[in-house]
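Q:
Just now I want nothing more than another pair of eyes on a protein record. Here is the record:
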Amino acid sequence: MRNTRGLAALILTLFFSTSLFAEYLYQDDVVQKESFAEAINPIGQELYEKTGIRLYLVMLRELENNQSIASYALDIAKQQQGPAVVVAFTEMPKQVQIIASSPELYKRFDRAKILSPNASFIGALVSTIMFARSFDDVKEEMGNYGGVVLPVLGERAKGKDIIDKYAVAMFDGYSETAEEIAASYGITLEKAAGNSNQIGIDVVRYIFYGTILFAIFGYFRGRRRAKKREASEKKEEIDE
């Protein structure tokens, strides 16, 4: 988590600003840091100025009355004047969703990719090895990667590092959604994460998934050694 914290600090430092922006960090009961709002709001402001689409981020501890995160986000999106998209997160239970005020807006960004549990091809390969049970499963898992939220949320963290993890994950998801919407109009956002930051994110992810692959390799190697040991012990019993 140390590398991720450093990445978060870099992101928040790059986008620190004392300018006044509309509150595109619509609700935050989780991170509650001024620097986090100052990282999110300029991206939302620039996106709205260039495309007319409002992109909000909502971060909640929990929802009441068994309401789903999707319905909560849709209520917010529908309340806005004009097209709106809401990136929403709840800590208890841990859920993430991206909801648009109209079906046409979903063509502006790839929700399935942004919310994929696999950050990269390596992640998709790991998921295939661990979970695929058929050829259809293999095709689905291998074609499902590019996620920028769930892979970070899945990392282990303790204490205040948990809040840092939430901040990084949702900044990634918000920024990626904003960039995809802008790209659909042929526009580049100056205040979003961009390709330069993506290099740093990818390095962290490759280290993370490389660790998983090493663990899987060690698991299967251990199983193979155990089977050989059992076979050797049975042979010794038979010989006796």
